[in-house]
Write a structure and sequence with these properties.
There is one protein chain. By secondary structure, this protein is of the alpha+beta class. Among the domains are: 72-137; 149-263, endopeptidase domain like (from Nostoc punctiforme) (endopeptidase fold (from Nostoc punctiforme), Alpha-Beta Complex), CATH 3.90.1720. 49% of the residues lie in helices and 13% in strands. It has five helices and eight strands, in the order αααββααββββββ. Strands 3-8-4-5-6-7 form a six-stranded antiparallel sheet. The protein has a two-stranded parallel sheet with strand order 1-2. The longest helix is centred in the middle third of the chain and has 79 residues, at 59-137.
Length: 265
C-alpha cells in the first residue's frame, strides 16, 4: 500500500461523458440564441443605401407610347365633333319646328281670310239678289221698275242718252253704237267691259229671259257671236242704241225680242 494512499486527493473527480455533452449542447443553444437576437436587433445597425437604376425606354416602347397618345387625341377629337354635330342637329330641329309652326299659322290665317272673303261675297250676292227682287216688284205709275244701287246708276246713265244718235263705232258723248253705250253705262260703276258686242255677250252669268232683272245685258244673236246688245231697264223694257233710224231708245221687249241675257250685278 502506498504511503500516500491514505491522503485524500486534491483532484476533482472526472465527470461522465454524458454530462459533458449536455452542457455543451446547452452552451451552444445559448450562443445561437444570442447570435439570432443580435442579428434581429436594429438598434445599432448601419443604414443601407441602395441605388435602383430605372430601365431605359427602348425605341419600340417609345413608339407605343406615341401611338397611344395619338389614339387618345383622335378619340377626343371624335367626341368633340360628335358633340358639335349633336348641337347642330338640335338647333336645326328647333329652327325647323319654328318654321313649321309659322307656316301653319300663316296657312291658318290665309284660310280664315279666304273664308271671310267668301262669306262676304256670299252676303253681297244675297244682298244684291234681294235688292233685285225688290226692284222687280216695285214699279212706278208708268210700269217702269225703279232700280237702286249699281243697277240704278247704270240705267240712269243709259236713260240720259235716250235721243242721242246711233253712229257705228262712235263712243259718245252725243252719239253711240250699241256696245259703246253698254260699255259707258257700266263704266259708271267701275265695271270695265269689252268694247264690242261679241265678247260683251259672254262677260257675265247667263240668265233666262223669264228671270230678268234691271241692269242685265241683253244680246241678239248667239252668245259670243252677238251682233247687238242693250240693257234691261225693268218693267219689260230695255235701253239701247238700236240703229241709225231710231238712235238711242227705250223700248219694250216685244218691240225687238232679244236672244239671251247675262248678269253682272
Amino acid at each position: 500500500m502506498s504511503h500516500t494512499a491514505h491522503i485524500p486527493s486534491h483532484r476533482k473527480p472526472r465527470r461522465g461523458a454524458s454530462k459533458t455533452a449536455i452542457r455543451s449542447g446547452v452552451a451552444g443553444g445559448v450562443l445561437s440564441t444570442m447570435a439570432l437576437a443580435g442579428a434581429a436587433a436594429p438598434a445599432h445597425a448601419e443604414p443601407v443605401t441602395e441605388t435602383i437604376e430605372m430601365p431605359t425606354l427602348t425605341s419600340a416602347l417609345a413608339g407605343g407610347v406615341a401611338q397611344s397618345a395619338a389614339a387618345t387625341q383622335r378619340v377626343a377629337v371624335d367626341l368633340e365633333l360628335g358633340a358639335q354635330e349633336d348641337a347642330a342637329a338640335a338647333h336645326a330641329a328647333k329652327v325647323a319646328k319654328r318654321a313649321k309652326a309659322e307656316a301653319e299659322r300663316k296657312a291658318e290665317a290665309k284660310k280664315k281670310a279666304e273664308a271671310a272673303r267668301a262669306k262676304a261675297a256670299a252676303e253681297e250676292r244675297a244682298s244684291r239678289s234681294e235688292e233685285r227682287t225688290t226692284l222687280s216688284a216695285s214699279s212706278d205709275s208708268t210700269g217702269t221698275t225703279q232700280a237702286t244701287g249699281s243697277a240704278a246708276a247704270v240705267l240712269a246713265f243709259a236713260r240720259a242718252q235716250v235721243g242721242d244718235a246711233y253712229v257705228l263705232g262712235s263712243n259718245g258723248p252725243d252719239s253711240w253704237d250699241c256696245s259703246s253705250l253698254v260699255q259707258a253705262a257700266y263704266r259708271q260703276i267701275g265695271v270695265d267691259l269689252p268694247r264690242t258686242s261679241q265678247p260683251q255677250s259672254t262677260s257675265g252669268t247667263p240668265v233666262s229671259l223669264d228671270n230678268l232683272q234691271p241692269g242685265d245685258i241683253l244680246y241678239w244673236g248667239g252668245a259670243g257671236s252677238a251682233y247687238h246688245v242693250a240693257i234691261y231697264s225693268g218693267g219689260g223694257k230695255f235701253i239701247g242704241a238700236q240703229n241709225s233710224g231710231t238712235g238711242v231708245v227705250e223700248k219694250t221687249l216685244d218691240w225687238d225680242p232679244p236672244s239671251g241675257a247675262i248678269r253682272l250685278l
